[in-house]
Amino acid sequence: MKKWTITMFVAALAAVTGAAQSLDDLNIQIHGYATQGFLYSTNNNLFTTNSSSGSPAWTEAVINITSQPYPKLRVGAQGRYELLGNIGGTTLSLDWAEADYRYNDKLGMRFGKVKTPDALFNEVQDIDPAYIWSLLPQSIYPLTSRNSFLSHYGGVAYGTLQPDKRLGKLEYRVFGGEGVDVANDPTLTLGEENSPVQLPNGWTGTLYGGTLHWVTPLKGLMVGSSDLAYQYWSSLATLNTGTTTINGSQYSWPCQYYWNYAQYEHDKVMVAGEYSRQQYAGGTTFPTDPSANSTFRVDVRAWYAMATYRLASKLIAGIYDSQSFDHQQPLQPVRYSKDWAISGRYDFNTYLYLKAEQHFVDGTALGYDANTNAGGLRTTTRLTLLKMGVNF
Amino acid sequence: MKRLLIGFLTITVALAYAAHAQAQVIVIANPGVKAAEISKGDLKDIFTGAATSLPDGARVVPILLKAGTVHEEFLKAYIGKNDTTYRAGWRSLVFSGQASMPKSLDNDAAVVEFVAHNSGAIGYISSSSPHEGVKVLAVK
Fold this sequence. Notes:
The structure holds 2 protein chains of 2 kinds.
Chain A: H1 2-19, H2 23-26, E1 28-41, E2 58-70, E3 73-84, E4 87-104, E5 107-115, H3 147-150, E6 151-161, E7 169-179, H4 186-193, E8 197-198, E9 204-215, E10 221-240, E11 245-252, E12 255-266, E13 269-285, E14 294-312, E15 315-326, E16 336-347, E17 352-362, E18 380-391
Antiparallel strand pairs in A: 1-2, 1-18, 2-3, 3-4, 4-5, 5-6, 6-7, 7-9, 8-10, 9-10, 10-11, 10-12, 11-13, 12-13, 13-14, 14-15, 15-16, 16-17, 17-18
Chain B: H1 2-23, E1 25-29, E2 37-38, H2 40-47, E3 61-65, H3 69-79, H4 83-95, E4 103-105, H5 108-117, E5 121-126, E6 135-139
Parallel strand pairs in B: 2-6, 3-4, 3-5
Antiparallel strand pairs in B: 1-5, 1-6
């Protein structure tokens, strides 16, 4: 799937450049942004940073190039540099690279490496200039596992339907393809720290799903739902038994992930809420030592409620409560994460902005790793974030 | 009684001024666009990237002003956002691969020039600006 989508993307790019008479015909745009963050926390270190001492190890830079040579066809790609604590910082990664053909407002298709259009904020989860928050609610948009669900190799069909104007509009997205999770993805990095099983080659898998947004007749109100089914496997799993290292593989049963959400925007106010449930199970098998085989099960239920208010033309404030529970975990702080956050964003101008955010976290289910918390985890954490961003 | 009357007159004048200011923004389109009018909802959809065509199926391309009173008035009257929030919405679409940023031009003359010579272009200018070569769409 990955090779097929890349081949098709390259073919579309070649067709576009071959047909153009000049660079003007290609209607090329270049955009980008960069952010620098600072974290300070009490009690625990978060996101593989030394945040309890104050950490500036939170940097990202994005470059985006698109071309729209024909009214219905757009081709583009976006690359990213990302550093978060001990994760990333050495290579550029590809956010997406796609060809997008929009036949009309009822039907469009994009294929390549594409953003996965599920949940309320998944498509913009890693686009810092897009929202007020320094961190989206971690219960549903955990910073350290977002790479796994941000995009996939395959396609998206999308459009807007309006069978009856009195009932509003329906926006749909249907998607499918091959999942993405490379060997150095934060999901794996943190998971491996807390597990004797390592996945040196990462994992891959297939996914498909859909999203439906009802833009209601009540101006400003949108109600939506998303569903994702996926199955993944890893061709190489290693286990250090103490005396030797054995090789095996890891797999999951078909996994289910769904989200229900609503958002209301009017004038200076925005309120939103979302609920999700993620269930999956799987196992790791070692042919040379079946006694080392193991199974795992996850059942995470999460939700948040948020509100923002524009205090002035350049200043916006917000607050949210975010909670997550893994019902397969024992009744300890590792089972849950509860997070109150207060946030503010000031836009100096169109290009430059500053964010400040304070979190009050209870529970250790999200965002912690063993290496930077060698003394063990405490139940509560206070996290202060500052972030400056520039975009063009 | 006198204070009440002065207050009433002040409010009346302020409302009249606001209505007059809103009426100063007009929506223009390339002459090839067949529609003579556009609803507020459709106008907002076009200028927020939610739609790329009019109800009659005609494909349109939004053209923005970079800044200024006309731009602010247009956003307030038809989009319901200020410039910061409005551009953040477009950036969401651009950086998630869903759209390209609409062209932004420096002044009304540049908008008129572009709209007049580009099929499907739709923009907004001050009603007092010369606009030969484009058609004015009534916003209902």
